[in-house]
Amino acid sequence: MFSDTDLYAEKLAQAQQELKEGELWLIATRENLEHPEPALSLLSGAHLTWDTFFLLSRHKATAIAGRFDAPSIEAPWQVQIYDEDYTALLRSEVAAHSPQRILLDYSPNNPMMDGLSHGMYLKLKAALPEAEFGSAAEFLGGLRSAKTPAEQARIKAAVEMAEAHLEELSAHLHLGWSELQAMEYLHERLREEGLEPAWGWNGCPNISFGRMPSHAGATEKRLEPGMLIHTDYGVRMRGYCSDLQRVYYWPRPGEGVPEEVTRAFPVVRRAIDRAAEQLRPGVKGYEVDAVARATITDAGYPEYKYATGHNLGRATHDGGTLLGPRWPRYGQSPEGRVREDEVYTLELGVMLEGLGYVGLEEDVVVRPNGAEWLSRRQEAVYCLEP
Amino acid sequence: MFSDTDLYAEKLAQAQQELKEGELWLIATRENLEHPEPALSLLSGAHLTWDTFFLLSRHKATAIAGRFDAPSIEAPWQVQIYDEDYTALLRSEVAAHSPQRILLDYSPNNPMMDGLSHGMYLKLKAALPEAEFGSAAEFLGGLRSAKTPAEQARIKAAVEMAEAHLEELSAHLHLGWSELQAMEYLHERLREEGLEPAWGWNGCPNISFGRMPSHAGATEKRLEPGMLIHTDYGVRMRGYCSDLQRVYYWPRPGEGVPEEVTRAFPVVRRAIDRAAEQLRPGVKGYEVDAVARATITDAGYPEYKYATGHNLGRATHDGGTLLGPRWPRYGQSPEGRVREDEVYTLELGVMLEGLGYVGLEEDVVVRPNGAEWLSRRQEAVYCLEP
To answer: Which InterPro entries does the UniProt record give (chains A, B) (predicted)?
Structure first.
């Protein structure tokens, strides 16, 4: 397996390759435990308290750090240390890169490309009054989204771990369990492995018995016969996430899966197929969304109120191109083009009143000729036998 | 004990009291698991994915949230839900507060008051082109620093837990242990209690055998006779942190604590005494720092390269007034005035070449008449008997 050091080195080489001549990428951060800089996490595991600057151009990687932070910054970053003031150092180090354009981590559209705080932005403006700043979002979206081999291997491992946990859950579910108990069952699996849930202990897994899921997560609601069991779950393993939705049904005594469910499931599955067929290098995010969305509405189901897919990586919502509709709240994200080596979720569903949510989510990586499944697809609504 | 709900309610009431008539405090955040908003954490445990806005004025607390995020926002926030676009809703909700001034969470000086990303700032400017924005830092510094009774109780409990763990460590340390082994010993204590280290698993505790500590933390260096053992450790318990430094000595066979150590320790302790005597409501941060710093240099030791103390709370470095020198890199933080109910660390030390670091750190709360110790003070360099 790849070590963290290998992974950071691989990503740094990718970043230098994707930067253009004359571009300087400047990451400005501090107290990165309380306030992580999502772009820095791609390149370094450093723990930083004081103001710290990472300067990357095609041929040079330098950092400016406070004395006590400097030792936590790994090679190949060449670290300059300050005690009282870094202004002169910052100016001279920026000049040493002779940049024509300085890219900063801000983006109205993408939280993962928006790691620069407004206060640090004001500090940079004051320290470098002549500098021409621009958003790093386009470059960073590409860097973050196109996964290196080490990153793909880690995501695949996180997918397999989540699948194993979900299989165990489906074998152990009991009538009368609350959603919170099912959640706790998966949390125990995570603790056994020393892992974390992909999107926090409070909301992951998101378990819904006989109802529409919400980001508020699992509740005291108890499992009864005649309910759909919906799980939205992912594992964060060695820094990378998986994100899967599965759906099960607990039948009433002597009954099978209701016809409404067996009618809805193939539509949901087909909508994901359509999205996967559409997902290839060069296509725009909203074009992938549109085919999946139309499959649902053409079948007479209501339109779902979210995007069909998002990038998956260090974060569950890893930024970059969104496979989403052109709604104002998504900004420019659905306009991006899909690229090779990007990893996406494909997720959507149909709410059946009185039964629950028929929702699926699979994880795929984009190859030159199209999508490759990272997850083992769900083939049918699994009926849990008492 | 106070519940989280009580604690959020107490802090929200404090915020409304400290806001002036006509002021609207506007928190804008999203994906707050990957990118936490340190100010929002004071008021709500909500987990948010989409763009979310919290609007607080003296008599009104409203929030605007995406459909799936809304259920995780607790009362008394009145939540308005959006699906596709929030611009009109944001405008009307801001207008409903009739603000003369809108305060945003940005600050060049204080990372904990700098939770607004530059990208979200640009979005606010675009959505509210007429609005007059200002920094919330002054208000927020006061709010964050002045701890409510529930917050003080939690910090005190975190201090006591860290003290108990350090006592256990000092009783179990072995010659030949590496710094990393000592770290692992404390990590086991944390895991047993289901707690987290105050500033992350990688850097907390920071253990140094016979050397100057750095933020890079513990190493493979092994404990030998004739070394000072320095620990910098804190516990994060129910959301609040402690932060303590202790120093021990492992004697050479047949020898006691070297004279250099017994000479330095009282100077370090006296410098902390002086800072504590100076620490009372109304004094400026740099004035507290100056008396401690002068105690060290007057005794002929080199000046330490960091601040004498910082606020302690949800974060180890909790922002607000810094008990630090007027160095450019500290910006305006040392100019702040100390206020009642603030909780500070007092920390400093002296490096003794060939022996290690004689460093102490205590935690105090500011009362009307001066500092009250939250930690049991270290009285002497504890000599660890083989």
So the answer is: Creatinase/aminopeptidase-like, Pept_M24, Peptidase_M24B
CB-based contact B239:B314 (threshold 8 Å): yes
Is B118 close to A114, i.e. CB distance below 8 A?
Answer: yes
To the nearest whole Å, the CA of A101 is away from the closest chain B CA by 18
Q: Distance (Å, rounded) from C-alpha A235 to C-alpha A160?
A: 9
Report the gap between the CA of B258 and the closest CA in chain A (Å): 27
Report the C-alpha gap between B54 and B29 in whole angstroms. Answer: 9
Are the C-beta atoms of B207 and B125 separated by less than 8 Å? no
Residue pair B53/B82 in contact by the 8 Å Cβ criterion: no
| DSSP string across A253-293 | TT--S-HHHHHHHHHHHHHHHHHHHH--TT-BHHHHHHHHH
Q: Where are the domains of chain B?
A: 4-145, 149-383
**Topology classification of domain A149-383:** Creatine Amidinohydrolase (3.90.230)
Give B123's contacts in chain A (Cβ within 8 Å).
108
Pick from B200, B215, B328: which is nearest to A87 by CB?
B328
CATH topology of domain A4-145: Creatine Amidinohydrolase; Chain A, domain 1 (3.40.350)
Backbone angles phi, psi at A248, to 5 degrees: -125, 165
pLDDT of A193: 86
- Cβ separation of A215 and B72 shorter than 8 Å? yes
Specify the range with the lowest mean pLDDT, choosing from A189-193, B49-53, B78-82.
A189-193
Q: Which residues pair with A345 in a beta bridge?
A: A363
pLDDT one-digit tens code per residue, A243-299? 999 999 999 999 999 999 999 999 999 999 999 999 999 999 999 999 999 999 999
Cβ-Cβ contacts under 8 Å, B86 against chain A: 329
Among A26, A29, A32, A34, most B C-beta atoms within 10 A, so best to mutate, is: A34
CA-only gyration radius of chain B, Å: 23
| Residue A21 CA: distances (Å) to CA of A54, A102, B286 | 17, 11, 45
Instruction: Tell me what percent of chain A is helix, strand and coil, each rounded to the nearest 5.
Output: 35, 25, 40
User: Hey, are the CB atoms on B50 and A329 less than 8 Å from each other?
Assistant: yes
- Please tell me whether residue A339 adopts helix, strand or coil conformation: coil
Q: Does pLDDT of A1 surpass 60?
A: no
Total beta-carbon pairs less than 8 A apart between chain A and chain B: 179
Angstroms from A254 CA to nearest CA on chain B: 35
Q: How far is CA A192 from the centre of its chain?
A: 24
Q: Which of A281-290, B189-198, B307-316 has the lowest mean pLDDT?
A: B189-198
In this prediction, residue B386 has a pLDDT band, given cuts at 50, 70 and 90, of: low
From chain B, pick out residues whose CB is under 8 angstroms from the CB of A71. 214-216
Taking contacts as CB-CB distances below 8 angstroms, the residues of chain B near A327 are: 83-85
Assess whether the region A4-145 and the region A149-383 belong to the same CATH fold: no
Tell me if A119 and B109 make a contact (CB, 8 A cut-off).
yes
**Chain A environment of B306 (Cβ under 8 Å):** 68
Q: Hey, what are B370's tokens?
A: 């001066």
